[in-house]
Amino acid sequence: MGVPRVYCDCETCDEARQQGINRRYRSSVLLEGREGTFLIDCGPDWRKAMERKGLRFVEHIVVTHAHFDHIGGLPEWADSCRWLNRRGQLYAPQEVIDMIMRQYPWLPAQLDMHAVDQGFDLAGWHIEGWKVFHGKNGYSYAYRLSKRGYIWVYCSDAIALSVEQKEPLRGLDLLILGTSFYEEKAEFSTRSVYDIKEALVLLQEVQPKRAIFTHMSHDIDLRRDYALPEGVELAYVGQTVELG
C-alpha cells in the first residue's frame, strides 16, 4: 500500500514522511533502452513517479494483474493520452484485460488493449507471462524477459509458488520479487505475498545471479541491516538497474 501508511506512526513511516529513504510508491518498473521504453504496472502513484522521472508520456504499459495498487493509475494515463492526442498501448493476459474493463470500461477510448497470453515482443525484449499464486488475493502474473542472452523476471505479487510456477525462475540473471514483510506473523490463509525469510529460501532453490526485493510494507526499514546474502538487495524509489 506504499509507505508511509496514513494511519501509522511507526519509525519507518515517520522517517518516510520526512521524504526519507523509506518513502515508497506502489511497485512499478520503467524499462528504457535504445529500442524503446515501457512500464510494468501503473499504480496510483503513476503521476508522482512520472514527475519524479521527468517524463511527460509513456506509450506502452504491461500489467501484471488488476488490483488497485497495480492499475490505479490507468485513468490518469488514459487522460494524458487524451490531452496529448496519442493512444496508449496496454499489454496483459486476456483475463486481466477483462477485469480492467469491468473497473474502467471507458479506457478503450484512449488505450489499445493487447492480449498477450502467448508471449510477445516489446522494445527488443521477448516477454513471457505465467500465472502465479497470490494467496488470499487469487492469482497474479509474473513476466520473464529476455534479450541477447540476458534473462530476468518481474514477480511482484506471489506466495507459495508451486513446482510448475517456480520453473521460469530458474536460470535468471536477475529476479525482482515482492516481499511485504521481513517475517509475516499473520495466518497463512490471510496472506498474499512472500516475506523476506521465505523469499530467501526460494532464492536458494532457484539460484538467480542477483535478486531485488520490492513491494515492501512499512515493516521493512531500509536503514536496518538485514544481513542479506551477497547479490540480494532491497529496492528503493528511483533505483536504477542496468540489464545486460
Automatic annotation (TrEMBL):
Bilayer-spanning residue ranges: none
Keyword Hydrolase set for record: yes
UniProt key word RNA-binding: no
InterPro entries in the record: Metallo-B-lactamas, RibonucZ/Hydroxyglut_hydro
Matches recorded under Gene3D superfamilies: Ribonuclease Z/Hydroxyacylglutathione hydrolase-like (3.60.15.10)
SMART domains referenced in this protein's UniProt entry, alphabetically: Lactamase_B (SM00849)
GO molecular function, one term: hydrolase activity
Domain Metallo-beta-lactamase: 25-215
Catalytically driven reaction(s): 3',5'-cyclic CMP + H2O = CMP + H(+); 3',5'-cyclic UMP + H2O = UMP + H(+)
Alphabetical keyword list: Hydrolase
Function: Counteracts the endogenous Pycsar antiviral defense system. Phosphodiesterase that enables metal-dependent hydrolysis of host cyclic nucleotide Pycsar defense signals such as cCMP and cUMP.
Record-linked PANTHER family: HYDROLASE C777.06C-RELATED, HYDROLASE C777.06C-RELATED-RELATED
Name the UniProt record assigns to this protein: MBL fold metallo-hydrolase
